Amino acid sequence: xxxxxxxxxxxxxxxxxxxxxxxxxxxxxxxxxxxxxxxxxxxxxxxxxxxxxxxxxxxxxxxxxxxxxxxxxxxxxxxxxxxxxxxxxxxxxxxxxxxxxxxxxxxxxxxxxxxxxxxxxxxxxxxxxxxxxxxxxxxxxxxxxxxxxxxxxxxxxxxxxxxxxxxxxxxxxxxxxxxxxxxxxxxxxxxxxxxxxxxxxxxxxxxxxxxxxxxxxxxxxxxxxxxxxxxxxxxxxxxxxxxxxxxxxxxxxxxxxxxxxxxxxxxxxxxxxxxxxxxxxxxxxxxxxxxxxxxxxxxxxxxxxxxxxxxxxxxxxxxxxxxxxxxxxxxxxxxxxxxxxxxxxxxxxxxxxxxxxxxxxxxxxxxxxxxxxxxxxxxxxxxxxxxxxxxxxxxxxxxxxxxxxxxxxxx
Length: 411
Fold this sequence. Notes:
Elements: E1 2-7, H1 11-22, E2 28-31, H2 60-74, E3 78-79, E4 83-87, E5 92-97, E6 101-112, E7 116-118, E8 127-128, E9 134-136, H3 137-145, E10 154-158, H4 162-173, E11 177-183, H5 192-199, E12 206-208, E13 210-216, E14 223-228, E15 241-244, E16 247-250, E17 254-256, H6 259-263, E18 288-290, H7 301-319, E19 329-333, E20 337-341, E21 344-345, E22 351-357, E23 361-370, E24 373-383, E25 389-393, E26 404-410
Parallel strand pairs: 1-2, 1-6, 2-3, 6-18, 8-13, 9-16, 10-11, 10-16, 11-12, 19-26
Antiparallel strand pairs: 4-5, 5-6, 7-17, 13-14, 14-15, 19-21, 20-22, 22-25, 23-24, 23-26
Helix pairs in contact: 1-2, 1-7, 3-4, 4-5
């Protein structure tokens, strides 16, 4: 029996382990499928990490090392190159590696921190053959930053998520010509600072309401046909345009790695594709917690660390029999707010609620209702889907709460 098993050794897993340790749990085990800790941050060699957390700009590996160094100082056990194959509802974990073979661990509590993966070309139904030169943006990032391999010299990027924007800059810095970044939606899916620093600073055009309709070439990409789309996302035939290129990078969304979550019988949120959780980050299976990108996709790793600390701290309380679940207050949204994390409040204490909006809204007022009563409101000059928002509800505001609804009013 192990008190706490954490699946995933990226920033979420390490932050959760440290928080649990600081709250009195010593019997902790981190399982990581890669050969080293750090997760996706290993390949993110650009700076901009840690501004909220450490008050300074760090690269991805530097940010990860801040946590790894502390994990190793405390002697928290780690199994690298270890693949978890199954989790049961009674918290039995089946895993495998070259040293131990196939083995099982019975845990008192589990924290899921497996991160997310990129959507592939197969999910997009783009016409054309299967030539070399089509990569996900994350794969291209690993090739350039970790393997020293340039995927191509003339590049089109589909999707304006943060990875795509960052790779537009990275490919430019390595000497490639980035012809355009095409975005299906009428707004970018990335942070405003990345649009400015990665596109505008390099004179790379961002084509909103555009998509790739065909990939040309048999052995190697020779070009793509792009087109503007209508309000229903359908290509407008008269706007089709051929762009010569040898590489297409796809930055078309991230999906939480939730296969293990589903195997454990945990309720999945249909919008985030992550687990439904309480403010302690406990899932529908008691004693199983989730945090980081496996729960919902974050744009800042600083928020991942903060959320993981919540999961680690509350997993420690669960193990010690001190976790309170004395109320059940569901949180609903009005559509302009797409989702919230958490989805339920089970203890009336100060609670930070993270959420994303469905569109770009100027002069928006965020309101939280308990029935017909407004218990919280704040104004924002601008909110956008690419930037996660958060508000904090105080314990006294939740005193008489039974069901909350979070919505936007736009002037």
